[in-house]
Design a protein that fits this description.
By secondary structure, the protein is an alpha+beta fold. It is built from 5 helices and 14 strands. Strands 5, 6, 7, 9, 10, 12, 13 and 14 form an 8-stranded mixed sheet that branches. The protein is globular, with a radius of gyration of 19 Å. The N terminus is likely disordered.
Length: 255
Amino acid sequence: MPPATADETSTAPRFLAAGDTAVVVEFGTVVDRAVNRRVTSLGRALREAEMAGIVDLVPTFRSLMVHYDPTVIRRAEIEEKVNALLPDLSDEATGGRLWRVPTLYGGDYGPDLEEVAERTGMSPQKVVEIHSGGTYECYMMGFMPGLGYLGTLPDELALPRRTEPRVRVPGGSVAIATNLTNIYTKESPGGWHLLGRTPIELFDLRRDEPILLNAGDSVQFYEIDEATYKEMRARADEGDPVIEPQEIDQAGDGA
């Protein structure tokens, strides 16, 4: 579950042991865009450094877990390298990919849209306009393959999770909770508020790259009608990814 949101941030990380083959580099204790960008920036810098012995990098909202082979590299060497990279880390958007995600809002596809509108004091269409009007960064991946936690949701739409989670949430459901939004990649239980559904498959083993989103990517939602949804869904059923990403330059703008 995502940690609570606050405005606490930190530029000096903590190094936390995670067994004898991993170290966690923690930049803060909250969900915060600037904190997450430093996590993403460190991950990118370590990949570019190509240090022998580092076998995997796993970003979260506020930390980066560095998995390493202790027969090749020592934890102290990793910490030394991270500290050397700190001055060049950025809390600004620095590249990645932009995905524009078609979404059919409301009705059977988004059964919580009316309730969200009522609780936030807005019309359903205004909720759609606000949700589809933002650009969300993929802070981290989980709890199922291809699912990215996207933020930050505008304050007007911030609601706690549902008090009664659903046993079945359809795959492709576009949902919100706290200050985040996401897309359920497959049918599963879930407690987020369902605003709509996208016809695209974010996780498909038939593709060369089964997972579309990666941490550090950005997402924009746009509204489609039911006929378009069904046309795109038919293509997705055939293995077509339906959408392509737009590369974002180092200044954070679309290329």
